[in-house]
Amino acid sequence: MNLSRRGLFRVTAAGLLVAGCASGGANTETESSAGTLLRSTAKLPEPFTVPLPVPPVARPVRPGRYEITQRAADVEILPGLRTRIWGYDGIFPGPTIETRRGQATVVRHRNELGVPVVVHLHGGRTPPEHDGYPLDLVAPGAAREYVYPLDQPAATLWYHDHRADFTGPQVYRGLAGFHLIRDDEEDALPLPRGEREVPLMITDRSFAEDGSFAYPSVDPSLLGEPGVTSDFVSGVLGDCVLVNGAPWPVMEVDAARYRFRILNASNARRYRLALDPPGAGFVQIGGDQGLLAAPVRHDQLPIAQAERYDVVIDFLAYRPGQEVTLVNRLGEDGTARVMRFVVTRRVADDSAIPARLADVRPLSRSDAVAEREFTFRRGGAEHHGMTLWTVNGMPFSADGVVAEPALGTVELWRLRAQNVPHPIHIHLAAFQIPGTAHGWKDTVDLGNGDQAEVLVRFEGYRGKYVLHCHNLEHEDMMMMANFVVR
């Protein structure tokens, strides 16, 4: 087990907090999120005073080719203050990339930041050399081309930094954006589109008095010792909810159906979203990996880090002038609110939600050619007195391999969470959760003590990939493992 690259990382075992604990004056907000609340010292705005921004759609430099520069920029997130972000093309969220199924796409990333970066297309069925393996670094001043075959159904994917040891702070500074795949099957459905199809990236952040992002890095330069200070090793929870980079924004909507592609891009916070007043609730049409077989109605949406919900909200259930608040049933104070919709007028609406959405063949346990178990917990290994976050008791190593599935097969993986909640993400391979209507997924949410059985289908490419916890502070502290598709 090679731990040399982590040799500078120092956190005592006593500093590893679990849900419900806090020290050093920090406040913990943990009904369902593993982590410690970091309070802003900047003056935060009144909710629902900032308009909802929508990330711009990236323009290809030529068909099938995009160029993105990762660079710092000073932007206004809190009214009257400037925040230094690290952004794709200098914006947060980054530009939305829209592509079509089966049309290979090349995205050239140039790194003008002062630290190494890695780009992962989350949910992409991608060859290993283009997947964003956490040690495949792009050095400052260098560039790298990522080639995406996109041989997969229409879905809401996203791209974000995946640098080993430093994913948490680099995503927190702004390195995240949407990547939408479209296809003919989805285009044939009468779903809301155009201005009534809106991506919503939900994050939580804390701000220093001058408006800068507050994040408790041991080394804020992100060039030396990795990790966060001991109060925050279970996860960093912000006290300001941002949607598409704006604090508690407001959006005017017609009394019509809208399609919202909801992504939880927070480092450690989980949400349970609801509408107040509830109206007709949410009609889910898709999840992590694309459309469901049939729509499912929800009153609440539990969404862990990296999960996506593709939903339709029918604002015809409200009267013009009515305010509808998207709330978080797991939050307190400011984090109990997310954004607000204001219904403006009644209009013609030719959209509909069909009873059948896509052809999703359910997998069964009989499809599995092998069964494996993975436990995600704190402990099982130490390094220089540091207790690590581990998979099956082992911290991440570039040389370690926990599974060698065969290409074209299905396996049953039992995923277990201990100590605190863990959202588990598997690269390359989509999976189904037997007995649910969630369709194909790439991330599963596990509460403390929970177990999930997932049927994982290994399609696409041979090579080395990772599975890991998507609490980014846990991931940075070695809760990640390699598997190799043979």
Automatic annotation (TrEMBL):
Keywords: Capsid protein, Virion. The keyword Transmembrane helix does not apply. Residues 74-185, 385-486 form the Plastocyanin-like domain. The keyword NADP does not apply. It holds the Pfam family Cu-oxidase_2. SUPFAM superfamilies: Cupredoxins (SSF49503). PANTHER family: BILIRUBIN OXIDASE, CUPREDOXIN SUPERFAMILY PROTEIN. Belongs to the multicopper oxidase family. This is Spore coat protein A. It comes from Amycolatopsis deserti. The gene is cotA.
